[in-house]
Design a protein that fits this description.
Layout: H1 2-28, E1 31-42, E2 50-54, E3 69-77, E4 86-96, E5 104-112, E6 121-128, E7 134-143, E8 150-161, E9 166-177
Antiparallel strand pairs: 1-3, 1-9, 2-3, 3-4, 4-5, 5-6, 6-7, 7-8, 8-9
Length: 178
């Protein structure tokens, strides 16, 4: 019985060591890509890209109100100006998920249309505590060039118009992919 236990223990340790080495090799072959662009989030005006689609009944639906859900199709640009070159679109939703209205939960696909990453996507998810200067959200997956990507994006609000609920967010994205 003791011999059987020793043999099983040795097999387990061998399997664990092999798995650990294979895992190390797998992560050494990942590519790192760093990108920076601007998300043009406009709730008002002729070219609005963000609209409230649900909220608490009989209360004002606002980005600052708990329970409000927005659908977005925000332009991603190379520079802060709204008319600068487009690299893609941010499609998805965000929900004000804090009772005091201070936190959004982001769920969005960054759909690239530029020459370098055309047709590829990154999936973003996480808490956007928008009152903080810098916020970090997760890159949880991707497609195309970014298939099975993992990483993070740092968000920084570089322009905000609270009365009209318009904003420009700088995204610094770091992804690890095959």
């Amino acid at each position: 019985m003791a011999t059987k236990f020793v043999i099983l223990s040795l097999l387990f340790l061998l399997a664990l060591a092999t798995s650990t080495e294979a895992s190390k090799y797998q992560f050494q072959n990942l590519k790192e890509t760093n990108m920076m662009f601007y998300m043009q989030d406009w709730e008002t005006g002729a070219n609005a890209t963000s609209i409230p689609v649900a909220g608490i009944p009989h209360k004002r639906w606002s980005v600052l109100s708990f329970g409000t859900i927005f659908a977005i199709d925000d332009k991603l640009t190379v520079a802060i100006e709204r008319n600068s070159s487009e690299v893609g679109r941010a499609h998805g939703i965000y929900v004000n998920s804090a009772l005091d209205g201070s936190d959004l939960h982001l769920l969005m696909s960054l759909v690239f249309t530029n020459k370098e990453y055309n047709g590829s996507t990154l999936e973003i998810q996480g808490a956007d505590r928008f009152y903080q200067k810098y916020r970090e959200v997760s890159v949880v997956s991707g497609t195309g060039i970014f298939r099975l990507a993992r990483g993070f994006a740092t968000l920084e609000t570089v322009y905000i118009d609270i009365p009209n609920s318009n904003a420009i967010i700088r995204l610094n994205v770091t992804v690890f992919h095959y």
